[in-house]
Design a protein that fits this description.
Length: about 280
Amino acid sequence: MMTEDEKFAHRSEDLLSDVRDRVLVLTIDRQESYNSWTSALRDELARQLLAADADSNVDAVVLTGAGDRAFCSGQDLAEFQEFVDGRNIEPWIQRLISCYDSVRQFSKPLVAAINGVAAGSGFQVTQFCDYVIAHPEVRVGQTEVSSGLPSVFGTWLMWERIGRRAIELALQGRLMEVGEAKQLGFIQEVVEKSKVLETALNAAHRLSNQPRLAYKLSKSANRQFDEQRYSTAMKMAASLYREAFNTGSPQAEIGKFFKRRRARKAASTPPTTQGISGA
């Protein structure tokens, strides 16, 4: 029997990398699961960002998803399904923090090219980027509650931008249409679907033309503004995830999610974004 680490080990094809005119394009490519994360995939993203930050041949990074359905739908629920209780949460959250830290500490321009739905941690990572581009069909938001998961860190992250309205969005598990997301400041630019990546590359070049040291020091200062609140929110998320998984409730909801998905496949119903993990 395979261990959990073996079952969800990183595959090189899960995160594609391509340098285009000194801009590194990182593409999440797990289209069979709406480009959802595994811990191993987050580890690899962190590794690539650390390497790119130290590479003098890379001026900026664009992060996007493969296909046209999803940028990243959040945590792969199949990995969560392996959690018997809350004991798995601590190592899982530590790997999540390592990934988020690598995104937050990336000193060069980092642009998100949202090509499809961005939910939960898939949405969260875009909010650590310097500039976010999407197209009119994109939807984004925090959907954890709908999957039986406490919405903690993602709620805080939205709160930092929009205040108490974050609670309403999180408790509904609602995905925002692109117009609402742009109005609230979660997205900076909306372009035609075919131009998302091109626009993101142009934005990366534009930002990389800023004075390098000033850009780096500004990002460092901006990160420190909310460092304590970031840490507090992550610790709270770990505690409440542990509490939830100890009850077995998230595991039961995840089981229902996969049961619904199997039923849809059996009925040959086109897939929807209902039940996207969001963690």
